[in-house]
Amino acid sequence: MELTALTLNCWGIAGVSKDRKIRIDAIGNHLQSGCYDFVFLQEVWVEEDFQLIANKVANVMPHSHYFHSGVIGGGICILSKAKIIDVFFHAWSLNGYIHKIQHGDWFGGKGVGLCTVIYHGLKINLYVTHLHAEYNPSSDEYHAHRVVQAFETSQMIRYTRNKADVCILGGDLNTEPGSLAYRLICDHTSLQDLYLATGKPDSEGTTSETSVNSYTAIESLYACPNGKRIDFIMGSSREGLQIETVNVNIPLPSRIPGYPFSYSDHEAVCAKFRIVEGQSNVSSQSKELSICSLKEALQVCDSALRNLSNDRRNYWLAFGLFIVLLMTLPFSYDGSRIVHYTLMVTHLFLTLVAVFCLIMATLWNRIELHGILAGKLAIITRLKFLENLI
User: Fold this and answer.
1) Where in or outside the cell is it found (predicted)?
2) Host domain of residue 106
3) Per the residue annotation, which of 266, 340, 347, 370 is the catalytic one?
């Protein structure tokens, strides 16, 4: 059996993403071709955009599911030729910071979504996800969040794959091949990065900040002229079946026909592959790789826990400083109305900042601490189990 899947980060943020409505319409038009058995979409933040795409492709992919989560939704969905018989969503325990409004990951409440289908007699698990973005590569404050997300994704896939013949993961992992988050997903799920089987270099399959994309900033091209390969289609199969990659390519042209801009700020990825009879390729070497990635993940968690301790101390110091300023600064002044109102505004500002520091030192610090600690303990448990197998 031969299957074709597509994944695309649609960059569909209302009021922020440029040319959103035209691009979403063009994406729907492309998917109408009927070339794809399964489609994995990310950053479809506006539900009306999902409905538009689903309606456009209803004749060729009549089954779809949008995963609702968080405040504004996780933005992930799946379109399928086969009937969806079951769905599940796991929200990650760490999802960025609530006060980083410009990033918005926390408000999405993101995670990994699962749709199960029966297609040509095979039970297939379709997973879609979108890991936390790396906003500053030189100082990645979300590294621990992304590592825990990747490990939880691998757990989710391992826990739900047992009765499936084939598992397919599509999504924007916001991490490049060989990175820790990438290895945590591949090493612990037996998922194969289907692009690697083509033998093509990563430079030919880049999907983010590429030179041909109209939305790529000049600064990004200087930093990384070839772009990054961070969007993936991965697959695995049960004992007795194998996945053979036929081809993986970038299916969309660099510009929407008739317009001077691209379909998204990411490139789509299309994978064509066969499901054939064969033996499983899981080996003891994969267990050794799993142990290495788990040990590295533990180091990341330990570093994050130390940083949290420092952050908590700094927020308490800042809170104390602002309280002292509030106590020493007069609340009113009888001589000048301008000075009087300036003091009132200053008091209000200092009060708000003090409350923010108090929340960050207590509630938010504890939430992040427990999220990282839960991930660390789960990693330790898995690590002990794998070490006993070797």
Assistant:
1) Membrane
2) 2-279
3) 266
